[in-house]
Each structure stands twice: as structure tokens, then as C-alpha cells.
Write a structure and sequence with these properties.
Blueprint lengths: L4 E6 L2 E6 L10 H15 L6 E6 L4 E3 L4 H8 L4 H18 L5 E5 L2 E3 L1 H6 L4 E4 L4 E3 L13 H6 L5 H8 L3 E2 H7 L4 E2 L5 H10 L4 H8 L12 H7 L5 H11 L2 H10 L4 H14 L5 H15 L3 H12 L17 H8 L12
Parallel strand pairs: 2-3, 3-5, 4-6, 5-7, 6-8, 7-10
Antiparallel strand pairs: 1-2, 8-9
Helix pairs in contact: 1-3, 2-3, 2-15, 3-14, 6-13, 11-12, 13-14
Length: 347
């Protein structure tokens, strides 16, 4: 077990409290295993009627996964990285299938792995501090932890937009898009948690009674642009549409995409498009595990981590550097099912 996440019963609820503030509560394998174990125990415990997920001190709810460890593993045999993804995805799946209501308090940075532990929740509480994103294309990765499932189910082509650009959304935008179900001010969070622990059968009414006025969703002004410009069948078509538009917003998005890994963007686009036809969340996680197992050992991931996290020069040298050089054959290889005995399965 680990002190990086605290799992305990309080009143009539199970509490999962992320406790790794110096890393913005980024998840490691031990944390995922502890959460998986706690959820398994609470599943059959009649004294636990709901599950609350939040974080201890610090400005992040959860900034993602232990990227440095994953990159170091990917540079060798990839075994530790695959084990991390296997346990993390089992934990994501257990949250998704939890029969008891789950409430996630997305107060602060909610990115990558933080999305994976908040999106399965029945109630997802945003605040004025929420900063939601799936920024993986900037480090040669892709929006995993169920990103292909959640993003593909957003209206229009918002899923493609968020997956490709890594756009950061505030709490009001999360509520407007359905990524959050409630909006509370931070000063009301402790009261909400205490009342839910005492009366978990009235979660919805508690959150509604404490809800704050929601700020306007800035992204709403660009919904038509997103649906029009991110509708292309291929990454090349999307880039061409942005260039042809020529407006300030389109040019800004095109400039953003030019900084991302072409391979990662093609993987992410394919993931979102396939996600719309995925029969179950279990199937989604099985596919994402196969993709993650391969992507972490490809050059762009190591280069992205070097540029953004290690050297911090923010000047990655992607290989291939041009979208047209990332062939359909490469994408098919990345998405191919793993051999029997290596595939992901639920816990």
C-alpha cells in the first residue's frame, strides 16, 4: 500500500483522497492498485453506500500519470509501463462499473489520469479552479484512460478538437459540455463532502442545493467552427480546413496542432473515431491498452517527454515530422490486437 493515496471509510461513504501534492497528485502504479483494492472491498460492503474522490493539499486534483517512469520504462523493455497501464485501466474500469454512486471533485488541474478517475463518476463536480485537459498529443501519447470513449460521445466534433489540440477547459466549460455534472465554489466543497458522507442517498439534492452560478462557457462561441473545421476524415483534411479558413481562431488552432506529434494526433483521431462504434467500455480499455503498450516504446513519446518534462525546451523533434509521413500501415500496427495472453482484462 502507499501513502500517496488515502482510502478510508467516513460516515456512510468510502473516501479516495489523492495525496501526492508535489507531483500534483499524478498517479503511479501503487496508487492505482490501492484504489482498485479499495473499490473491490467497498463493492460488497453494505456500510459503504457511495464513493467520494478528491485530493489533499495542492492545486491539482490529478495532473495525470507518472510520465517520467513510463518514459524510462518505454525506453527499455516497457514492462513497468505496461504494468502501470494494466492496473490503471483496471481501476478505471472498476470505477466505470461501480454499482454505488461515485462523486469526483475536480477541483484544480484535472488532466490525463485525472480525467480517467473523474469521468466514470455519476457526479462530477467542477469549481472555479478546474482546468480540464487531455494534452497527450504534446508528448507523443494519446488521450487514454477511456478518452476514446468519453471524447467520442461529446456533441459534434468536440472530441476530435479536445483530443488533437489538448485544449484546456475551465469549470464552466466542463459543465456546459457535460464533462461535469455540477458546479460548486471551493468554499462549499467541505460542506458538500460532509453532508454526502452523512446522507449518501441524497447526493443529487445536496449538490444542487450548494451549486454556484455557472460562469459562461467561452468554448460555446466556437462550437460551429469546431464542428466545421474538425470534421475532416483525416488529420491532413483538418489541417487544410484550418488553413483555408484563415480566421484568427482557425490560425491559432492550426499553429497549436503544428507543435504536436503527427503520429500522436493520427492515433488520437483514430481513437476518437473508433470510440463512437466501440461496443463497451471494457472493449475500449482493451484497445487502449494495446495502443499504449506500443506507443510508449515509439520514438515520439521519448522525445515528447524529453522536450516537455526533462529538458523543458519545448522543442520536440518529431519522427516523422510531417502528418503525411505517418502512414495508415503504422496506425494499423499500433491498433492491432495484442496476442493472446498479453491482452488487457478487467480485474
Amino acid at each position: 500500500m502507499t501513502d500517496d493515496v488515502l482510502t478510508f471509510a467516513e460516515g456512510r461513504v468510502g473516501r479516495i483522497r489523492l495525496n501526492r501534492p508535489k507531483a500534483l497528485h499524478a498517479l503511479n502504479t501503487a496508487m492505482c492498485a490501492a484504489m482498485l483494492d479499495a473499490l473491490g472491498k467497498w463493492r460488497a460492503d453494505p456500510a459503504v453506500e457511495a464513493v467520494l474522490i478528491d485530493h489533499a493539499e495542492g492545486r491539482g486534483f490529478c495532473a495525470g500519470g507518472d510520465i517520467r517512469m513510463i518514459a524510462e520504462s518505454g525506453a527499455t523493455d516497457g514492462k513497468a509501463a505496461r504494468e502501470f497501464f494494466r492496473v490503471e485501466y483496471q481501476m478505471n474500469h472498476r470505477l466505470f462499473t461501480c454499482a454505488k454512486p461515485v462523486v469526483a471533485f475536480m477541483d484544480g488541474i484535472t488532466m490525463g489520469g485525472g480525467v480517467g478517475i473523474s469521468m466514470p463518476a455519476k457526479c462530477r463536480v467542477a469549481t472555479e479552479n478546474t482546468r480540464f485537459a487531455m494534452p497527450e498529443t504534446g508528448i507523443g501519447l494519446f488521450p487514454d484512460v477511456g478518452g476514446g470513449w468519453y471524447l467520442s460521445r461529446l456533441p459534434g466534433h468536440l472530441g476530435e478538437f479536445i483530443a488533437l489540440t489538448g485544449a484546456r477547459l475551465d469549470g464552466g466549460e466542463c459543465l456546459a459540455l457535460g464533462l461535469a455534472t455540477h458546479f460548486l465554489s471551493t468554499e462549499k466543497l467541505d460542506e458538500a463532502k460532509a453532508r454526502i458522507a452523512a446522507q449518501p442517498q441524497t447526493i443529487e439534492s445536496i449538490l444542487v442545493s450548494l451549486s454556484a452560478p455557472t460562469p459562461g462557457a467561452k468554448i460555446a462561441a466556437h462550437r460551429d467552427d469546431i464542428d466545421r473545421l474538425f470534421a475532416g476524415d483525416t488529420l491532413e483534411e483538418i489541417l487544410a480546413a484550418l488553413e483555408a479558413d484563415g480566421g484568427d481562431w482557425a490560425n491559432e488552432q492550426r499553429a497549436t496542432l503544428r507543435t504536436k506529434s503527427p503520429q500522436a494526433m493520427k492515433v488520437s483521431l483514430h481513437l476518437v473515431r473508433q470510440g463512437r462504434r466501440m461496443p463497451s467500455f471494457e472493449d475500449e480499455m482493451r484497445q487502449e491498452f494495446a495502443v499504449a503498450s506500443r506507443v510508449v516504446q515509439r520514438p515520439d513519446f521519448a522525445e515528447g517527454v524529453r522536450a516537455v518534462i526533462v529538458d523543458k525546451d519545448n522543442a520536440p523533434r518529431w519522427s516523422p515530422a510531417a502528418p503525411e509521413s505517418v502512414t495508415d500501415h503504422v496506425i494499423d500496427q499500433i491498433f492491432a490486437p495484442l496476442p493472446d495472453g498479453q491482452q488487457w482484462e478487467p480485474a
